[in-house]
Design brief:
about 500 residues; two-stranded antiparallel ribbon; globular; mainly alpha
Length: about 500
Amino acid sequence: MGSSLFRTKNVEQSIRDTEEPEHALKKSLSALDLTVFGVGVIIGTGIFVLTGQVAKNNAGPAVALAFVAAGVVCALAALCYAEFASTVPVAGSAYTFSYASLGELPAWIIGWDLVLEFALGTAVVAVGWSGYMRSLLDNAGWHLPGYLSGRDGAHGFGFDILAALLVLVLTGILVLGMKLSARITSLVVAIKVAVVLIVIIAGAFFVQSRNYHPFIPPAQPVPAGASLKAPLVQLMFGWAPANFGVMGIFTAASVVFFAFIGFDIVATAAEETRNPQRDVPRGILGSLIICTVLYVAVSVVVTGMQNYTQLSVDAPLADAFKSIGHPWYAGVISFGAAIGLTTVCLILLLGQTRVFFAMSRDGLLPRFFSRVHPRFRTPHRPTILLGVIIAIVAGFTSLSELAELVNIGTLFAFVVVAISVIILRKTRPDLPRAFRTPWVPVVPIVSVCATLWLMLNLPAETWLRFAIWMVIGFAVYFLYGRSHSRLAHPEQPSEPEPAPPIS
């Protein structure tokens, strides 16, 4: 039994699976498409909201350095992702990578983790998008009734109709094909980047140097108190994260890390890329570099426009322009935020369906979900199933506290991918690698250490919820996945059902 839990699926078999007609995704994406996907999912709630929160509570004007620190951690992970995605250009991202190096059980764990991460992230962002849209509708004089806004306390019922509709529309777009998704994403990303550039260029004319003093405010340690709400590092080592000071920058980095979530989703589209060995590394690293530069520039401008102690927590970019008497810019920023969040939802939903599809193709989930649409060549069955479930969850739940699970899920995936790079270098040195992570094993080890540090700065309550989800995942694996895995039945044909006609 022990050996079956860590049986690996070799890289050659993973690639052969992508060539089966009933399970082959359409290859239509370029390096530019992947870069746009990365920028589209990274620039979202983080840059429009978190800048004010961490500047006011943790780092002051040095929030720019917090973005740099978080970007460095992501860059280390991105180097590992780029090697794996170019070597194993198969849908599933970290799930597929760990299946080829660590074994079936670790692969199931990371796949189960990614399903939660992407689903929860989609629902959370959809609810945030709904809030922006309701605000814009209110300004136009159109008011949704409370029971359709997810907040009707009088009747004890509320359904966020806008959040649910957004998820359903995006589900339909994903079913119709990746190229259509890429075109829509490109248009929306162009609008979103334009709004960010407006903030940087227009805001630069209103920067006042006195707002940068002190650049790193004096440290004000948070009183230590052991509770589930405290970061795990505080409970384990007695160290309380600092507000301000040099350590405040690292505390802020663990928070703004949420703003970088998404670049790893580029790896999930490797199987649908025309030249994955060349284009996937470019898409991953290119999108991360672009977004890090934009994040740093925005944080420098906003903290220069308004003193960090006066920054808004809910809408710092828009409110900074209001504070200097330019509400028109504030309206443009709010519109850009609402439009921009649609691509975040779209690409998170894309990532989840591809992981689910890959797990189904391997037999760890029902093979029914591994068939692609005969015309659009997309995994329509898991896309529709997950889209409907997420729409319902987004409609009924605010998910405010559960949002931190997205962070821990992504960080956990980073650790697994970094370890997998080291293992596959040892076990399969013969594999052709179009992109090689530099200084192995130093870079992957540093990536693991930096990622674990950010994980320890998350609340212990988040770790507890994550553990509960993992326990459920173990139960599903041992009750279904282990016995239905294709590796458990190598003598069976890969697809016993007749192929559907292609029309």
